[in-house]
Amino acid sequence: MASYPLSHLILLLLPVFAFYFNHITAKHAHTTTSIHHHHHKNNHLKAKSNNRLEQAYIALQAWKRVIYSDPFNFTSNWNGLSVCNYTGIYCTQHPNDTTTQVVAGVDLNHGDMAGFLPNELGLLTDLALLHLNSNRFCGILPKTMSNLTQLFELDISNNRFVGPFPYVLLSLPSLKYLDIRFNEFEGILPPQLFNKNLDAIFLNNNRFTSVIPSNLGTSTASVVVFANNRLGGCLPPSIAKFANTLEELLLINTSITGCLPTEVGFLYKLKVLDVSFNQIVGSIPYSIAGLAHLELLNLGHNMMSGIVPEGICVLPSLNNFTFSYNFFCEEEGICTNLTSKGIVFDDRRNCLPEKPFQRSKRECDAVEKQPVDCFEHICGIKSNTTSAVTFHHIPLPSTSPP
Ligand SMILES: *[C@@H]1O[C@H](CO)[C@@H](O)[C@H](O)[C@H]1NC(C)=O
Ligand SMILES: *[C@@H]1O[C@H](CO)[C@@H](O)[C@H](O)[C@H]1NC(C)=O
Ligand SMILES: *[C@@H]1O[C@H](CO)[C@@H](O)[C@H](O)[C@H]1NC(C)=O
Ligand SMILES: *[C@@H]1O[C@H](CO)[C@@H](O)[C@H](O)[C@H]1NC(C)=O
Ligand SMILES: *[C@@H]1O[C@H](CO)[C@@H](O)[C@H](O)[C@H]1NC(C)=O
Ligand SMILES: *[C@@H]1O[C@H](CO)[C@@H](O)[C@H](O)[C@H]1NC(C)=O
Ligand SMILES: *[C@@H]1O[C@H](CO)[C@@H](O)[C@H](O)[C@H]1NC(C)=O
Ligand SMILES: *[C@@H]1O[C@H](CO)[C@@H](O)[C@H](O)[C@H]1NC(C)=O
């Protein structure tokens, strides 16, 4: 799950990596330049540096002091003013002044380091890339990070950060790639997150609890992963506004209720739609049959019912269609033989009379008696009927997957 959209990410990151690889040789250029400036200064070490690198030196030394475990010795060579030689620290030329070296990248991925992020991190004002994936950093992100106006890519995934959503990130004007998954952030998702010009948003495996903000559709991201949070609420119809950019939407196990809005089918660029392990009710919106690029559709482990429409089974790019653990009672046309279309599928534990591994008649009858009218349950609009509540009470079967 965590590595799921990797192929996409590599594409996304290529421009950044190209930027760094082109500049990585600048390290050697730096040494030459430094020697050149040597006679201007008395202090040997300072001569090799510049004000920006000195600020970085202060920041990195402060950071090193609050790193309490470093099993792979990433920071053991973090000594002296030559910060560009530190493990995990990447320098490049300042874009507007090619004679000045600056710290543009910090990559401590998989360091297994424990500690926290000091306020002095705000001195790394030239940072474009901050990768701290798979460490044991804890606490909160310092507010001084608002100084990181060049920060383009932030990956603090798989750490132990806590507290509310790190609002400081919303103030970063250059941020495009936001990955805070696998931490312990909690509370509401700020609507401002979706007003930012981000390309990728990974929030999965935290403790966020609010409903999905209704301005979700104002985002410009191509990948949004909310999975494994307790968001609750339903998917707002305003998601339709997301159509021009969204390619992957992963809402796995986010406590989502209600019907899937017809507007999901307006997301014409969508390749991956995974809403599995929720409490979604009602029928499949026929509009999904319009998603010409859809490759993976996972509706599994919900409480959906009705017909599996043929329009979905004939989608040209579809290669994996999971709708197991629902209450579907009929497959239309070729949907009964997805093997013949070369589509990987899972239709177990539904109410499909002709198929093996289905639910009991008793379970199916209980749902059939309480049909859900999705026109009455439009997300964000209160229905005056009581039926809006009844679907929470359908008992979920206790059987586990074989
Ligand atoms: C890190 O350094 C310590 C002390 O110098 C050494 O004992 C240990 O083996 C080193 N660890 C790694 C992973 O290199
Ligand atoms: C930086 O590292 C390189 C190679 O590891 C070394 O040749 C160079 O002297 C170092 N520079 C400084 C200033 O320590
Ligand atoms: C470089 O200069 C341009 C134009 O003045 C400015 O917009 C940009 O932020 C500068 N870049 C950096 C890294 O300071
Ligand atoms: C922000 O960066 C500037 C240098 O550009 C520095 O002087 C200032 O101290 C930094 N602020 C914080 C809070 O780190
Ligand atoms: C769903 O997420 C919760 C945490 O929000 C987690 O405890 C649970 O194991 C997850 N369930 C599945 C099926 O992944
Ligand atoms: C199909 O999708 C399901 C659910 O997303 C996944 O568990 C399964 O591994 C996929 N199968 C193949 C062959 O890609
Ligand atoms: C599904 O289609 C294939 C070939 O298209 C056929 O061989 C097979 O018998 C069909 N299965 C069923 C259950 O109709
Ligand atoms: C409540 O819903 C019914 C239809 O289900 C409608 O006829 C009625 O006017 C609604 N009442 C209000 C106050 O909206």
UniProtKB/TrEMBL annotation:
Signal peptide location: 1-18
UniProt entry keywords in alphabetical sequence: Cell wall, Cell wall biogenesis/degradation, Glycoprotein, Hydroxylation, Leucine-rich repeat, Repeat, Secreted, Signal
Gene Ontology BP annotations: cell wall organization
Localization terms from the record: Secreted, Cell wall
Domain of life from the UniProt record: Eukaryota
Domain Leucine-rich repeat-containing N-terminal plant-type: 59-92
InterPro entries referenced in this protein's UniProt entry, alphabetically: Leu-rich_rpt, LRR_dom_sf, LRR_extensin-like_regulator, LRR_N_plant-typ
Pfam families (UniProt xref): LRR_8, LRRNT_2
Main location: secreted
Name this polypeptide is given: Cell wall hydroxyproline-rich glycoprotein
Annotated organism of origin: Buddleja alternifolia
Lineage: Eukaryota, Viridiplantae, Streptophyta, Embryophyta, Tracheophyta
